[in-house]
Amino acid sequence: MDDAIVVMENIYVKVEQGMNPVEAGLKGSKEIYFAIISTTITLISVFFPIVFLQGITGRLFREFSIVMAGAVAISAFLALSLTPMVSTKLLRREGTHSWFFRKTEKFFNRLNLGEKAVSPNIEVIVLVIDRSRNSTHCMVLLKNNTRLIALILGTRSGDWSDFAL
After folding, report:
1. Residue 108: left if φ>0, alpha if ψ -120 to 50, beta else—which one?
2. Domain ranges in the chain?
3. Integer Cα distance of 11 and 46 in angstroms
4. Which parts of the chain are beta strand (E)?
5. Report field, pTM of the whole predicted structure over 0.70
6. Per-residue pLDDT tens digits for 74-97
7. In this structure, which long-range contacts are made by residues 78-83, counting pairs with CB atoms below 8 Å and at least 24 apart in sequence?
8. Cα 108 to Cα 2: distance, rounded to the nearest angstrom
9. Per-position b or e across 21-31, b if 16+ CB within 10 A of its CB
10. Nearest Cα residue to 157 out of 140, 134, 141
11. Would you call 86 exposed, middle or buried from its count of C-beta atoms within 10 A (0-12, 13-18, 19+)?
């Protein structure tokens, strides 16, 4: 289901930019198909090995893993085939927006500008957790434009409830 929402949103952005709905459906689905396929493969590879669990746990979760892996595969298939076709027929560019959109759009634009001003281009590069004898250390590297910031957190008991990031 999430895959179809992502595909439809990408197509709708193209339609709002003034592109023909059929062209938007083709271009939007071409842009996003690799992300959909990679996410699907990842989720199937997470759920499917549960089939091979032994004992009572395996018997309890065998059907669950098959259903989840199948649902993810079907969702990806529908997101890449049916959703673009339906989107080309249903999505149209609106000439005027609703009153709710007009009232809230300024707020959301300011919110986006504020987010960009507070955290421009911050990326988490590495998260290293080192568990030695009685202590645990965690190092997070943040990249902010050209500066590299290292946060080193440590605790003796392994209890991270003291740290709120």
Report:
1. alpha
2. 2-93, 122-160
3. 29
4. 122-132, 135-144, 147-155
5. no
6. 999 999 999 999 988 888 877 777
7. 78/3, 78/4, 79/3, 79/4, 79/6, 79/7, 79/36, 80/3, 80/7, 80/29, 80/33, 80/36, 80/37, 82/4, 83/3, 83/4, 83/7, 83/8, 83/11, 83/29
8. 23
9. beebbbbbbee
10. 134
11. middle
Give, in words, the CATH class of 2-93: mainly alpha
Q: Strand pairing partners for 122?
A: 144
What is the share, in percent, of the chain residues with pLDDT greater than 70? 67
Q: How many residues does this entry show for the chain?
A: 165
- At position 79, the amino acid (one-letter code) is A
Banded pLDDT at 154 (limits 50, 70, 90): low
